[in-house]
Amino acid sequence: MITPEHVEALLGSDAEEPVLVVVLGAAEVVPRSALGTDQYKGALEVASREDLVGRLGPGAPSRNDLEELSARLDSTVAHLGA
Questions:
Q1: Span between the terminal Cα atoms of the chain, in Å
Q2: DSSP state letters, 13-81
Q3: Which of 3, 36, 63, 65 sits at a 20 to 30 Å CA gap from 55?
């Protein structure tokens, strides 16, 4: 469900306060302000860009970093049953 491309999209998003969410079984990067709309009602917030930068540290992440982080996030979401 959550792929390295989702993590990369979150890190590279130009949205204000982007977050990675799962809604209706699909992962998506959206501005935090969208979470209050009907379209994202009930969405599970997985991580914010700020969260990921804190985990990855400064600099551009490697492909391996993206793969490892997406696997951890995907596993967490799967355990939550989203």
A1: 10
A2: --SSSEEEEEETTEEEEEEGGGGGSGGGTTPEEEEEHHHHHHHH-SSPPPHHHHHHHHHHHHHHHHHHT
A3: 36
Counting Cβ atoms within 10 Å, is residue 65 exposed (0-12), middle (13-18) or buried (19+)?
middle
List the beta bridge partners of residue 80: none
Query: Would you state the pLDDT for residue 37?
Result: 95
Rg (CA), the chain: 12
Residue 47: the pLDDT is 96
Rounded CA separation 60/46 (Å):
21
As a whole number of angstroms, the longest Cα–Cα distance in the chain is 36
> What is the mean predicted confidence (pLDDT) over 3-29?
96
